[in-house]
């Protein structure tokens, strides 16, 4: 197996600082104190790949798009594609200097459409051989860049995503970095799947406009997630029941961290305030104390007793790790977690999932949990 590995080093940086995405917002994310998320997720995928398939041939992109991490995981790259045209003595570009065009150049070189310019073959394998799989780290924007490059090259090489973006609407991603490595090492067939992306400016205004950007060959495995689906059915009774429970705690100083999405949005409306439809709001003793909060703002609002109310995102079954990065491990560890969902949403998922960037926390959250599905009714679901 010859894997072409490429990293979008700034993917996901806008999430925890409340930007709902990073496209065109890298400078603002940094100004808000954002820290890189994607490199650590890349590291996790590569380290797992080195365990499950140590003989894998890996080609990669020059830093900051992959080389250092590939070597640190123990792979000697068969090829290092330099999309920047840098000299060997030059320092690598800053992560913020990377663009969609750089990703496209790397992918096109992987599949033989980029020529040998700027490429260095220093491993034992044939550095000019096309890769068998493009393994990329990023979000929907990166997935679009990879798929578009493959399409322009006329290549049927499959692609697989290590999820690191704020928005992960496409069905080309593995559930976690480790799952991506497992799939890359073991898949035996592919199928055509959709690459979706949304208008981030509209998304920041609370409107989700998913658009089909490409259809790509993707390895088939149970641990590939489905694309997000819009939840169906009404949640009024559920929202009323949860809102009643929250009101009963008024005057006790309990802080409720109310996640994004339509289901929790209905609870916010039942409490009597206009929700941030894709943001996190914080409620205590009958009033909103943080609206559309960042991770830092949420942490500052927490007190002695805190409760997160969250709903799985669309048809994926993700409770944490998709669409709500503000609910970071630091936030989750200070809160009790209450999961709510419509019956229709749960009918569409086999299990619930978490991907918090903290494997230990993911393990702590796993197991059977009670999900509120009505005014009084609950259902047992397993977080895997």
Automatic annotation (TrEMBL):
Keywords: Kinase, Transferase
Keyword Transferase recorded: yes
InterPro entries with a match to the protein in the record: AcoX-like (IPR039065), ATP-NAD_kinase_N (IPR017438), NAD/diacylglycerol_kinase_sf (IPR016064), NADK (IPR002504), Put_ATP-NAD_kin (IPR011386)
Coiled coil: none
GO biological process: NADP+ biosynthetic process
Presence of the UniProt keyword Glycosyltransferase in the record: no
Pfam families: NAD_kinase, NAD_kinase_C
Protein name, as recorded: ATP-NAD/AcoX kinase
PANTHER family: ACETOIN CATABOLISM PROTEIN X, ATP-NAD KINASE-RELATED
Single GO MF annotation: NAD+ kinase activity
